[in-house]
Design goal:
CATH superfamily of the largest domain: UbiA prenyltransferase
Number of strands: 0
CATH architecture of the largest domain: Orthogonal Bundle
Oligomer: single chain
């Protein structure tokens, strides 16, 4: 029983609800490059590598943010603040082990995949969590580049090259991240202020914050549609991207009209299904259409 509880705690500290979606973008990147010619061994190797890398990075950032998490209502019940993992350095070593293993597996894919894995880890852990998160209101923009790495890794696992299609897919994820995070921060603004984390919606007016969210959503939708015009997908994908984009824009502009915590929360909760469905459309375009 104690072993199961410990395993649950170490699983929880990886923030699985975060890496589930990132791993799915890696699946999307792989299938976009491979089409129906999927190598089972390489596919599994890629997914395991991205899972370990995402989980490892999340675990290390939980260690870095342990003082913040202890203050915020939203995060105070995580394994490190509640001392379900104690001492906290156990989580650090666990995260480092996962991260190192992910780079080794990525290297087994190809050198480019390993370089992208290392870039993603360093951007998330050092650039965002360690250096910018507590200092810069737009930290998530630079830190968000790591969010595009899984999709790129999935793509280069097949192609061993980065082209316009892969860059647009990664850019879509990168542009999705600020709006996803800023709507959450807008909903939990007092929490972030209490923890002294100067995220954009904390340090600017609500009116400015929601305009920034809307601006990034416009770019995100533009990139999602732009992918079609480089010839990567057919009409099924384009139709899906237009419909989902219209919904995303409607929700974000609804927030602009009247910024409230409730509307910000709705925007946050709908953002993950939006990205997941966009990648489902990519998969269907390559596997079915």
């Amino acid at each position: 029983m104690r072993l199961l509880t410990s395993l649950k705690n170490y699983y929880e500290v990886t923030k699985p609800r975060v890496w589930y979606l990132l791993v799915f973008t890696a699946v999307g990147g792989y299938v976009v490059a491979a089409g129906r010619n999927i190598d089972p061994y390489m596919f599994i190797l890629t997914i395991v590598a991205v899972t370990l890398g995402s989980a490892g990075a999340n675990t290390i950032t939980c260690y870095i943010d342990r003082d913040i998490d202890a203050v915020m209502n939203r995060t105070r019940l995580r394994p490190i603040p509640t001392r379900r993992i104690y001492p906290a350095k156990k989580a650090l070593y666990y995260g480092l082990a996962l991260s190192v293993l992910s780079v080794i597996l990525a290297y087994a894919i190809n050198l480019l995949a390993a370089a992208l894995m290392l870039f993603g880890l360093l951007d998330n852990i050092l650039v965002y969590s360690k250096f910018l998160k507590r200092r810069n209101p737009v930290s998530i923009i630079l830190g968000g580049f790591s969010g595009g790495a899984p999709a790129l890794i999935g793509y280069v696992a097949v192609s061993n090259t980065i082209d316009l299609t892969s860059l647009l897919i990664a850019a879509l994820v990168v542009l999705w991240i600020p709006g996803h995070i800023w709507t959450l921060v807008l909903h939990s603004k007092e929490d972030y202020a209490k923890a002294k984390v100067p995220m954009l919606p904390v340090v600017v007016s609500e009116r400015v914050a929601v305009r920034c969210i809307a601006s990034t959503s416009i770019l995100m939708v533009a990139f999602s549609i732009g992918i079609y015009f480089v010839g990567a997908f057919g009409i099924l994908y384009l139709t899906t991207a237009i419909i989902l984009g219209a919904i995303a824009l409607a929700v974000n502009f609804w927030l602009v009209v009247k910024p409230t915590k409730e509307r910000a929360w709705i925007g946050f909760k709908l953002s993950s299904p939006y990205l997941a469905l966009i990648f489902v459309a990519m998969l269907l375009a390559k596997l079915v259409a």
